[in-house]
Amino acid sequence: MSLELAVNAGLRRYSRHLLIPEVGISGQEKLAAARVLVVGAGGLGAPVLQYLAAAGIGTLGIADDDRVDVTNLQRQVIFGEADVGREKAVAAAERLRALNARITVEALPLRVGAYNVRALVRGYDVIVDATDSFESRYLLSDASRLENRPDVYASIFRFDGQVSVFAPGGPCYRCLFPEAPPAGSVPSCAEGGVLGVLAGMVGTWQANEVLKLVLGIGRPLTGRLALIDALSGTTREVALPSDPGCPLHGERPTIFDVADQPARPPASAPGARTIVAAELDAFLARFPAARVLDVRESHERALGPAPQAVVLAASELESRLGELDRTADYVVACRVGVKSLWAVRRLHEAGFRRLHHLEGGLLAYAATRPDFEFF
C-alpha cells in the first residue's frame, strides 16, 4: 500500500492530527514514512512505544534482550500479568500491532552492544534511548553521532526525570557526563525505586520530542536539559552547551568508533576489607561476635532484615557513634553498597579499625539467598 493510500485509509484514525496546521496530511505522511528505534522496552520505552505507534510512526524498532518480570508491571504499562517471563521486545511488539495494524513493528530481542549498535542505528531515522545504564547511554549517544542520527535521551529515578535531544551539531551525552561515575555509586531504579507514573510522564515527553523531530516543528530539546520533579509538580530547564573538549565531536576528537563503555571500578572503602555477598555467611560463622552494621534508613529496612545486625541508619550515624563498640568487627552494609561506603569512611575517621564493607549491599546478598525476603 502506498503512503498516500495508507494515510487516506487512516484519515479518521488520525483526524485529530490532521486538524493541526503544523501536522496535517503532509505531516502524517512524514510520520508514516519515519523509522524510529527505541532501545529499551521498560519504564520509559513503554509510553514512548505506545504513543509513537498510536501517532502513526511507520516503522518502530524495539531493541531489548530482557524478559518481563512481575516487578516491571508497576510502571511498564505496555505489559500485563500474562506477559511475565516473555521477551519484552516480542510482547511489546504484539501489543503495538494490536494498537495500530497500519504500522510495521520490528521486534529485536537482542543485546545492543558495540558489535551491532552502529548497524542498528543506521537503519533508523531517530533513536530513542530508553535504557537505564550509563554504559548503554554512552554507546547509543556515540553511535547516533557517528551515524548522524538524533538521540532522544531520558532518565528517571524516584521522583525526578530528565530529557534532552543529542542531535548532530549539538551536545552529546558525553557533554552532559564526561565520564561515568564509579560502579555502584549511583543506584538504579531497581535499587532506589521510581514512582511508576514518572516513567509515563518522562517517556511521553520523549515521544513528543520524537514527533517534533520527524515533523520538523517546534523547538527540540537540543542544547537544553529539561528537569521534571514529580513530587513538587515542577519543571525547569538548564542550558547544555557542546563541550569543545568532547572526545567524540570536540575540537580534537579521539573517538572514531563505538566501544563497550567499561564501568569505572567501585569507589574504595579506605580502612576496610571488602566482603562480597557470597562470603558474608561464612565470615559471620567464622567470627560469631562480628555484627552487620545495617545503615539503611527505616523505609529501606522494611524490605528485609540483615543477619546478625546492629541497626543504625546512616542519617543517625554522626549522633550515635558513641553507641558502637570500637573493638568489635563490623560489616558495614546498606541496600546497594553506596551509603555504606560513606559510613565506612566516617567510622574510619572516628577511629574504628575493625571494619569490613559488604560490596553490592544487601541486595547482592539477597541474590545469594533465595530464603532472604528482599525485593
Give the N-terminus to C-terminus distance in angstroms: 49 Å
Residue share in β-strands: 15-25%
What name goes with the CATH superfamily of the largest domain?
A: NAD(P)-binding Rossmann-like Domain
SSE pattern, N- to C-terminal = HHHEHEHEHEHEEHHHEEEHEHEHEHEH
In DSSP terms (H or I, runs of 4 or more residues), the helix count works out at: 15
Q: Kindly provide the radius of gyration, computed on alpha-carbon positions and rounded to a whole number of angstroms.
A: 24 Å
The CATH first-level class of the largest domain comes to Alpha Beta
Short description:
This protein is of the alpha/beta class and 375 residues long. It contains 15 helices and 13 strands.
Helix/strand layout:
Blueprint: H1 3-9, H2 15-18, H3 24-33, E1 35-39, H4 45-55, E2 59-63, H5 88-99, E3 104-108, H6 117-122, E4 126-129, H7 134-146, E5 151-157, E6 160-166, H8 173-176, H9 189-192, H10 196-215, E7 224-229, E8 234-239, E9 272-275, H11 280-286, E10 291-294, H12 298-301, E11 309-311, H13 317-320, E12 330-333, H14 339-349, E13 355-358, H15 361-368
Parallel strand pairs: 1-2, 1-4, 2-3, 4-5, 9-13, 10-11, 10-12, 12-13
Antiparallel strand pairs: 5-6, 6-7, 7-8
Helix pairs in contact: 1-3, 4-5, 4-10
